[in-house]
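User: Here's a protein and a ligand (manganese (II) ion). What would the complex look like?
Assistant: Let me lay out the input and then the predicted complex.
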Amino acid sequence: VHRRDPSTESETLKECFRFLNLTSRSFAAVIQELNHELLVPISLFYLVLRGLDTIEDDMTIPLSKKVPLLRNFHNTMEVDGWQYHESQEKDRELLEKFDVVITELKKIKPTYYTIIKDITIKMGNGMADYAQNDEMIKNGVDTIDDYELYCHYVAGLVGEGLTRLFVASELGNPKLAERPSLTESMGQFLQKTNIIRDLREDWSDGRRWYPKEIWSRHVDKWEDLFDPNCEDKALNCISDMVLDALKHCEECLFYMAGMREQSVFNFVAIPQGMAIATLELVFRNPDVLKRNVKITKGDACQLMTECTQNLYTVCEVFRRYARRIQKKNDPRDPNYLNISVRCAKIEQFIETLYPRQ
Ligand code: PS7
Ligand code: MN
Ligand code: MN
Ligand code: MN
Ligand code: MN
Ligand code: MN
């Protein structure tokens, strides 16, 4: 199952790996450990979606340009030599040299290419639908259904594409393709965690992904979340968001039970382990209201070790963090009981997978 072999890589492919290492915080390492069959397709899949997200995130591109860029990205990714030089985002170099990604995409197996293109069509259009809301900055998403639809576009679809790649390469259990709700939960869990954590950063960029249906249970005005006088209410709002994200845990564990190959297991399990640890970190943490928080290097290292073994060790991670959330749970939180029940359910589910004699 050998992995990267730079001696056989073209210059453009080496450049793609350089971009992967530049742009991805957590995915670069795990992607590069992937089974040879999927290493290049998933790296390119990542870069295509990272390119799309760089356009989505760039608040300096007027909507009149952004929307068509997002909707046409699946065509753009086929245009030889295409480059984009008008982004101000951190990852703009990827778009400035996007032609290397296009060159390499044309070399992969058509089955894989078709999956990547199909997901790009759907994600670009979904992002465009939500970009329209950006103009009414303070309106963001309203209902939990809206919020989940956005998470579907930017992460559920990634899960769908990855699952189709796993099944097409025979590295994933074909039964997974018949369980779209498990796949969707994998993406929802990661994206919701990213949104909960990025509260402050997204707001500074003029975006609001917490649904009004949730935040309005705690504060009258969105801005109140950042008012130091409303800190308790803001923490209760974050709890409410964490409670909602935790509903995906069981389906995520169930999905991971369908992995057949170690490198694919590691690739899907590491981000999930990081996500539950991040949820525990943001839970009742006032720093989230002020700046970006991140799990420590030490915790990340331990998680990497535990999430690259087997389902049992991943379950232990989930159980540990569910217990820590229980411990931090505050009786004055209106969701105290719901959170307590939710964490107990996660533990019970793990108990049914691995009963203790
Ligand atoms: C495994 C069934 C193709 C590997 C992995 C680039 C991260 C960037 O970072 O707030 O705060 O700026 O703008 C399900 C990854 C979902 C997606 C979504 C797991 C592609 C990824 C483009 C499914 C990753 C969830 C935007 C959209 O949020 O982010 C299985 C590979 C997975 C990319 C992520 C990110 C969305 C995102 P940031 P944003
Ligand atoms: Mn982004
Ligand atoms: Mn984005
Ligand atoms: Mn961002
Ligand atoms: Mn984010
Ligand atoms: Mn971010």
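Summary: The longest helix spans residues 110-134.
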